[in-house]
Amino acid sequence: MARDSELDLPAIKKLCEAATPESWTWGYNGSHFYVLMSEGMDLKQLWLKSEADAEFIAQARTLVPQLVEELEEAWGWRAAAREVHPELDVILGESK
Question: Are 34 and 48 in contact (CB under 8 A)?
């Protein structure tokens, strides 16, 4: 399991916030899989080799921010637990 210090959540959040907003979708035009990053007038496409790649990238737009939020909450709970049980890192095998 990654320690708090191994993931730079503020940097990950910054990347998410800088990405084209709203959910993304993917499709197939008969020869290429693609990801649509905006349904507005500035349409951007990313051509891919497989359906799995297209779906993964499209889903990542919403899943990564959700995962960051969940990690922040979990790390907050773990920090609170450490205050009550200072030996928590030893119990979990995470002592330095």
Answer: yes
| pLDDT band (50, 70, 90) for residue 14 | very high
In a domain, 55, yes or no: yes
Range of the domain at 35: 7-91
The pLDDT tens digits for 21-55 are 778 888 888 888 888 776 654 556 677 888 999 89
Q: Which residues contact 89 (CB under 8 A, 6 or more apart)?
A: 82, 95, 96
Predicted TM-score (pTM) of this structure: 0.70
Q: Establish if 1 belongs to a structural domain.
A: no
